[in-house]
Amino acid sequence: MEAFQSDSTLVLAAARGELGARDKLVDIWLPVVLGWCARLGGPKVDSEDAAHDVLIVMLDRLDSLRDPDSFSSWLFGITRRVLAKHRRQAWVQRWVPGFVPDPVDPGASPFHQTRLSETSRRVQQALEQLPPAQREVLVLCDLEERTDLEVAELLGIPLGTVKSRLRLARRKFRIIAEQNALVSLASVTAGEGGSS
User: Quick count: other Cβ atoms within 10 Å of Cβ 67?
Assistant: First the structure.
């Protein structure tokens, strides 16, 4: 999980505009941000566009970051706001007459090929049925394998709230998974205790 931890030296170097530091920061965090956008954005959000926008905001506002050690939670906050904006835009655009969204090339990347598999599609649909706060915690704890404490710091919420949301999310996901014949996945998430 080293790629998920911010290197405060790199963050400071990128904020100062040192040669190559911003590129390295983007290289490290692009896969993480893309994963967040894909799992938390919903079906109408183009995860690659959203991730691009997140990284643009990150680079524009990097010099305003007060504590380099809180970089990951700061970046997750940006991601949440960008995703909310993209969801609002998607909602509005469906009402605009004549609007035709650009087709996404499903063969463009291995990420899209994996996402198109039947199981992935059904899991994504199940995740989308969870309330956003529960979905965030489930994705961060169970899919990204972060600890409860890491998630609490990332979201800026109490540890007990993370555990409560995770327990509720696992229970609801298990019910949804059973209804959609994702039985093997339901058994994986059947535990309702906290994560490590």
Answer: 10
> Could you tell me the two tokens for 103?
């087709």
Place of tokens 């109408």: 44
Q: Tokens representing 70?
A: 């809180």
| Euclidean distance between CA atoms 163 and 149, whole angstroms | 9
CB distance 155 to 147 below 8 Å: no
3-state SS, residue 27: helix
Query: What is the tens place of the pLDDT at every residue in 171-184?
Result: 998 888 888 776 55
Residues 173, 175, 176, 180: is their CA dihedral positive or negative? positive
Name residue, tokens 């058994």.
Answer: 187
Tell me the C-alpha distance between 37 and 32, whole Å.
9
CA 78 to chain centre: 11
69 contacts: CB under 8 Å, gap ≥ 6 = 6, 8
Q: Which residues contact 113 (CB under 8 A, 6 or more apart)?
A: 106, 107
Distance CA(179)–CA(38), nearest Å, equals 23
Confidence class for position 111, pLDDT limits 50, 70, 90: low
What structural domains and CATH numbers belong to the chain?
1-104 (1.10.1740.10), 117-196 (1.10.10.10)
Residue 1 predicted with pLDDT over 50: no
